[in-house]
Amino acid sequence: MTEPLFDPFSAGDIEVANRVVMAPLTRNRADDRTGEVGDLHVEYYRQRAGAGLIVTEASQISPQGKGYIATPGIHSDAQVAAWRKVTDAVHAEGGKIVIQLWHVGRISHVDLQPGGAAPVSSTAQPAGVKTFTSEGFVETSTPRALTEAEIADVVADYAHAARSAKEAGFDGIEVHAANGYLIEQFLKDGANDRSDSYGGSVENRARFLFEVMDAVLGVWEPGRVGIRLSPFSPANGISDSDPVATYTPIIERLNGMGLSYLHMVEGETGGARTGAFDDLRKLWTGAYMGNNGYDRDLALERAGSGAVDLVAFGRPFIANPDLAERLRRDAPLNEGDKSTWYGGGAEGYTDYPVLENA
Ligand code: 8OZ
């Protein structure tokens, strides 16, 4: 019996061997000083190349875009060279890999910022949440609101990161517009308190997002650019008074761009699958990637009915490098060790077993 979940698919211009996607997972094992990935990352991603598509861990587009210890960047020549080893390894195994472009905005700390400066955002209001630095969990720092001229500089940083991703050999990019980071700090009215052309109406709040999209689409064919949204998620201390009203015109405008896929966090990130995400999903005319709390049954059901084209699995991919094969065979899954999710070395990273006689 064949199941769509295990069949090939074209996500825009990205041809995938199956619909099981490795979701972006922050693992904090890059070089904290240089933002380079290393040999461990090459092995970690190589092991997971049986996914139809890998979305890398979120990677900062600039030094200012960093918000946690030991996350990788995609802006320096050395970072590009380091990522090239990862893309080569995944491609040698027949996999596909896109990099998630990230600017954390106010979800950062002065200790992580160039020159110890305040993080930047749409607003000067702090998020009231925690991040992790070399000191452990700390309150995020009070941000400073970007000026219009500085917004243009951040947009240029996205274009530079998009070019860097191309040089590093990725199959495409995913714009991280979810989970309370900089783009959402503009989109959602619980954070955006601006009175200039980037605040107020939905059109204004979405101005930054669409400037970012135009910038990266100047570098990549649209069929190789995905976007991640989380309209209903309160992750990182954010809210919107009417997510359906906010995201309806955004999704309608994204429809016209011919993107590779829409990656939707269905509900609260890492939590309840609540909110009218299926109403927004119905507006979307391109390839659709569902994410959040999927298990095998839900993935088979929603891929089988056409509710989703692709399913992104996060936590299960930590402990099951061969997750796609395990799901195909309905094999048992390894349990992950939460204490090694963020930071550390090979333990809990590259040492999970694969099935015998795969
Ligand atoms: C967990 C820890 C740190 C960052 C996200 C990039 O929520 C993240 C993230 C997740 O999108």
Automatic annotation (TrEMBL):
Residue stretches making up the NADH:flavin oxidoreductase/NADH oxidase N-terminal domain: 5-333
Pfam family, one: Oxidored_FMN
CDD domains with a match to the protein in the record: OYE_like_FMN
Name of protein: Alkene reductase
Native species: Lutimaribacter marinistellae
